[in-house]
Specification:
5 strands, about 300 residues, alpha/beta, Rossmann fold, 2 domains
Length: about 300
């Protein structure tokens, strides 16, 4: 039930009030006619007594009694008429007051309904605006990541060429991920292809999927050495995926090293990711060599060789 929905107010209608007044007026009219008949009888009797007053002295006393009786009845009639008039005036004022109260309540209810409708419309517009902003933000992040990743891929190719010619120990090999099986989960196709390409540049064998559901199915068939997952995905996000994997036994791969790759990079985001079961948080957009080092370091936690790569 809507807490703002006003309850109907039961008020007597003008017809009900008019019916009551009409009934009272009919009763009053009957009373008037009765009293008028009584007065007529008293007048007739008085005339009869007047005719015999001269011939019957005792009739004077009886005439006086009849006069007093007539005056008393007349006084009662006047008092009752006054009471009926007051009652009618009171009923009319009550009807006017009820009409005014009803009109005021109807105005208040109309104003309340208007306010609730405006509030509901504002909430709907706010939700639409929030969804539109979220979509725009997601599109901008995806475009930014694609741009940065394309730039990073070019840098990676250049870096690979330099590494092959360099004599520095930390850059003596560009295939620091040789033999590493990586399960990559990313719903954006361009981003998924770019990251897979970057990892393959360093020798990793990459299985790339577009959803958490696909990832869990692949995980059940072949346990990877490292899981790399996006967080903000439709239907089922990265938090749900890592929760299902961490619920598995060690033999089923429940302790697989996992890296979260997401554009959400606040302190609260990092703390939540680590608490959920990821070993490392990699903010988007990623750099070529940074990604390889991060994956190698996470993989080393499970004993991966050729060892921990360092920049």
């Amino acid at each position: 039930m809507n807490p703002f929905e006003a309850k109907a107010v039961e008020l007597p209608s003008e017809k009900d009030i008019n019916d009551v007044l009409l009934g009272r007026m009919i009763e009053l009219e009957k009373t008037n006619r009765t009293l008028e008949l009584k007065a007529s009888r008293l007048e007739a009797e008085l005339a009869s007594f007047l005719n015999v007053v001269e011939t019957h002295p005792a009739a004077i006393d009886r005439l006086s009694e009849k006069i007093l009786e007539f005056e008393a009845g007349n006084a009662q009639l006047v008092a009752r008429l006054a009471l009926e008039k007051t009652a009618k005036e009171t009923a009319l004022r009550y009807a006017e007051d009820l009409t005014e109260v009803r009109q005021g309540l109807e105005a208040k209810l109309a104003e309340l309904h208007k306010h609730l409708e405006l509030e509901r419309t504002a909430k709907v517009e706010a939700l639409k605006s929030r969804d539109e902003l979220a979509k725009i933000r997601g599109d901008l992040m995806a475009k930014s990541f694609r741009y940065e990743s394309q730039h990073a891929l070019k840098e990676c190719e250049t870096l690979t060429n330099h590494v092959a010619q360099s004599e520095k120990p930390e850059k003596t090999t560009s295939r620091k991920l040789d033999g590493l099986d990586v399960l990559l989960v990313e719903d954006d196709m361009d981003t998924r292809e770019l990251v897979a390409s970057l990892l393959e540049q360093f020798g990793a064998a990459v299985t790339a999927v577009a959803s958490a559901r696909e990832a869990f199915e692949v995980f059940g068939r072949a346990k990877p050495d490292v899981l790399i997952s996006d967080i903000m995905m439709p239907d089922e996000d990265g938090y749900a995926l890592i929760g299902k994997i961490r619920a598995l036994t060690a033999e089923q791969g429940g302790n697989v090293p996992a890296l979260a790759m997401t554009a959400c990079n606040t302190t609260e985001d990092r703390e939540r990711l680590l608490a959920a079961g990821f070993q490392l948080h990699m903010p988007k957009p990623v750099q070529c060599d940074d990604l390889a080092v991060a994956v190698a370091n996470v993989a080393a936690q499970s004993g991966f060789e050729p060892g921990v790569a360092s920049r």
